[in-house]
Design brief:
mainly alpha; Homeodomain-like domain-containing protein
Length: 75
């Protein structure tokens, strides 16, 4: 299993959803803190229960940008 590195905003979202799953926060309170709808918080909770922490990582996380110049062409 690989280590999942999250950005600070993704980590914040993860911590709040984790608290919802542990029943330390309500879905309504989490929605207010994350500035999301309650329905979306329920979706995040369900996805977290199915797939774990990787749900919060952005989809393009490991991809290289296509706009980056090749070092050989930079002369």
């Amino acid at each position: 299993m690989r280590k999942i590195n999250l950005t600070p905003t993704e980590e914040h979202k993860y911590q709040i959803i984790k608290a919802v799953v542990a029943k330390r926060k309500t879905i309504k309170r989490a929605a207010v803190e994350l500035q999301l709808t309650e329905r979306h918080v329920r979706r995040l909770k369900q996805a977290y229960l199915l797939n774990g922490k990787q749900v919060f990582q952005h989809g393009n996380h490991r991809l290289k940008t296509h706009q980056k110049f090749d070092i050989k062409c930079k002369n």
